[in-house]
Specification:
Keywords: ATP-binding, Nucleotide-binding, Transport. The chain has 342 residues and is of the alpha+beta class. It has helices spanning 58-66, 113-118, 126-139, 155-167, 185-202, 237-242, 247-254, 261-266; strands at 17-26, 32-42, 47-52, 73-78, 81-82, 97-100, 173-177, 205-210, 222-227, 230-235, 257-259, 274-277, 282-286, 292-299, 304-309, 314-319, 330-335, 339-341. A six-stranded mixed beta sheet has the order 6-7-8-3-9-10, with helices on both faces. It binds adenosine-5'-triphosphate (ATP). Adenosine-5'-triphosphate binds next to strand 2 and helix 1.
């Protein structure tokens, strides 16, 4: 779907969504940098997650992609055409995309689920309206709720209605702002699986924002990592997890221990840079003469998180055999692997 801007010409050979040097500031001269100098590509038919700490610019980036906010610098293209900014379009937001924001502002609280979804479709073909509404309610497993008012639904159910409403008229891109916020783990996993299936079956492109990368590691095909408005890493989850390009990404994805080269040396690692040591890359062996001591044991269910220190620095370690170590015990640290941050 082309949603064009006057005097624009299509650029060939770009990914589906392509940003060049995108910046957006707030507050005029005392500018708050929301995002700065972002250049990125988002592929068609994939799930791309924008991740980063609170305030890193994720929601701003999503709104810029959709065309809800004006850019201060740079440009964003969709299928090679420039995304219109809010001044260039009567109803802001790209016609090929739909966005589901936090808070479900778009839902009509007093109408029922069916009407909230069906109202997105025209009355010109009532049979198609019925069929498409029914189909998307089934896909999102909320057909049994069709007569319920939004006000009476749980947060997770509302989230599914909001997504159904966004998908019912078959956008090419679905933008999701923190879709798994405030929902429990089992709900999250089934919703993630349902979204993955929709992407696989329909070729939909999904861009989602998350402040908790662990929750999207298994779901996203690509990750874009933001830090204070800058893009500091992009790539596939497995690659970024195992070979993070910087300390921020290592901490965000893996809660990694970041050690200076001097600290690493004390663990027998000889490198000329900082080191990322993921908590699961470390094993412990009890030794009454060891320099390191278990300082805290945090019970996590099927595993424990241990804080181990030598008086100078601490590292976090995952122990998959809970109950083996108690606070105060002295341990040797065995490094399975590490990743040098150059
Ligand atoms: N309308 C606005 N006016 C002023 N500052 C804004 C506005 N929108 C965003 N900002 C600022 O821009 C920065 C990035 O905000 P943004 O909401 O994009 O971050 P985020 O990564 O989505 O955060 P969170 O995870 O907390 O939702 C923040 O410092 C924020 O305070």
């Amino acid at each position: 779907m082309v949603c064009s801007v006057p005097n624009d010409t299509q650029r060939e050979g770009l990914p589906l969504i392509h940003g060049t040097n995108v910046s957006r500031f707030f507050n005029g001269k005392e500018a708050i940098v929301a995002v700065r100098g972002l250049s990125f590509g988002i592929s068609e038919g994939r799930i791309t997650a924008i991740i980063g700490e609170s305030g890193s610019g994720k929601s701003t980036m999503l709104k810029l992609i959709y065309g809800l906010l004006e850019l201060d610098h740079g440009e964003i293209r969709y299928r090679g055409w420039r995304v219109p900014n809010p001044r260039e379009k009567l109803i802001p937001g790209h016609d090929a995309m739909r966005m589901v924001s936090q808070g479900f502002d778009d839902l009509n609280t007093y109408a029922n689920v069916w009407d909230n979804v069906a109202s997105q479709l025209p009355n010109t073909d009532l049979e198609a309206k019925f069929r498409n509404t029914e189909q998307i309610l089934n896909r999102l497993r909320i057909a049994h709720l069709r007569k319920q008012r939004i006000a009476d639904l749980s947060g997770g159910e509302k989230q599914r209605v909001a997504i159904a409403r966004a998908l019912v008229n078959e956008p090419e891109v679905l933008l999701l702002d923190e879709p798994f916020n405030q929902v429990d783990a089992s709900f999250r996993e089934t919703l993630q699986a349902d979204i993955r299936n929709i992407v696989a079956d329909t070729g939909l492109t999904v861009v989602l924002v998350s402040h908790d990368p662990a929750e999207v590691l298994s779901m996203a095909d690509e990750l874009l990592v933001l830090r204070t408005g800058h893009l500091v890493a992009m790539g596939k989850p497995v690659g970024l997890y195992n070979y993070p390009p910087n300390a921020y990404t290592a901490r965000l994805l893996a809660k990694s221990n970041i050690l200076s080269k001097e600290e690493a040396f004390q663990l027998g690692i000889k490198v000329e840079s900082e080191v990322a040591l993921h908590p699961e890359w470390v094993a412990l062996r009890e030794n009454p003469d060891a320099l390191f001591k278990i300082q805290h044991v945090y019970f996590k269910g099927f595993y424990e998180e241990l804080l181990v220190g030598n008086g100078q620095f601490q590292i976090r370690v995952i122990n998959t055999a809970p109950g083996t170590f108690a606070s105060g015990i002295r341990v040797d640290i065995e490094i399975g692997r590490f990743h040098a941050l150059h």
